[in-house]
């Protein structure tokens, strides 16, 4: 059974058809690259899956169950987490504080409950160790590299035992070394059985870690191919329209 299935999904905003009759699925531990030019409908599709708004038509199924998401907390309850391009991290806080931001652990009893800082530090350290990241719980985020910041954002998804992580341009605007760190983080998620949808314009990164590549153009899916059975040249042609469909 597929972890996530998008079945004949469309989304319109007035007269604008952002996503048109798209169907595809993803299995546990699978990495799918989602590619397309700006305005292709990638972001709208991701927001449908993440619960930002419901589809106009069609269904989203998680573990075979039809889900009606109207807000992200509903998708999160089903194991779907999103790591947005801006990461939504608080620079003035530590790695551990960011991992638990909005999900803080407390100890004691009301009205004498206080933050259990040590428990949050210990759990964050465990998550970073699972991801094989050098990020340290007590380090301030504002002093971290792009790769370490991604590790913090991904560790936050692991806190809720996510089944599916949607990553929006995780390797944009970071150094070559940091790109390698982020790709290794994706491989670690895959190794742990977590499915990943990787939205990216960087062809080498998608080919390095994905099992399949889905290409969207003008709100429509024009290709869904195993990475081993396609090439950067073909994917580029599909994105630009030089190749109609594959």
TrEMBL record:
PANTHER family for this protein: CARBOHYDRATE TRANSPORT ATP-BINDING PROTEIN MG119-RELATED, SUGAR ABC TRANSPORTER ATP-BINDING PROTEIN
Membrane-spanning residues: none
Function description: Involved in beta-(1-->2)glucan export. Transmembrane domains (TMD) form a pore in the inner membrane and the ATP-binding domain (NBD) is responsible for energy generation.
GO molecular function per UniProt: ATP binding; ATP hydrolysis activity
Pfam short name (any one): ABC_tran
Annotated InterPro entries: AAA+_ATPase, ABC_carbohydrate_import_ATPase, ABC_transporter-like_ATP-bd, P-loop_NTPase
Protein name: Sugar ABC transporter ATP-binding protein
Residue span, ABC transporter domain: 4-243
Keywords for this protein: ATP-binding, Nucleotide-binding
């Amino acid at each position: 059974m597929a972890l996530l299935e998008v079945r004949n999904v469309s989304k319109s905003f007035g007269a604008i058809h952002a996503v048109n009759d798209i169907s595809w699925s993803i299995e546990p531990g699978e990495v799918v690259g989602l590619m397309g030019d700006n305005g292709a409908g990638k972001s709208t599709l991701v927001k449908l899956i993440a619960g930002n708004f419901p589809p106009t038509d069609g269904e989203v199924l998680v573990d075979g169950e039809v889900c009606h998401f109207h807000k992200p907390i509903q998708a999160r309850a089903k194991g779907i987490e999103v790591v947005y391009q801006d990461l939504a991290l608080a620079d003035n806080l530590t790695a551990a504080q960011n991992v638990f931001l909005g999900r803080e652990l407390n100890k004691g009893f009301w009205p004498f409950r206080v933050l259990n800082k040590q428990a949050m530090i210990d759990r964050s350290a465990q998550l970073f160790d699972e991801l094989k990241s050098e990020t340290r719980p007590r380090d301030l985020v504002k002093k971290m590299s792009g790769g370490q910041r991604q590790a913090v954002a991904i560790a936050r998804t692991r806190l809720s035992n996510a089944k599916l992580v949607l990553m929006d341009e995780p390797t944009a605007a970071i150094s070559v070394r940091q790109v390698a760190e982020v790709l290794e983080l994706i491989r670690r998620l895959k190794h742990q059985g977590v499915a990943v949808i990787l939205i990216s314009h960087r062809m080498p990164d998608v080919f390095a870690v994905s099992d399949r590549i889905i290409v969207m153009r003008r709100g429509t899916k024009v290709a869904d191919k195993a990475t081993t059975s396609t090439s950067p040249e073909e994917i580029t042609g599909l994105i630009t329209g030089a190749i109609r469909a594959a």
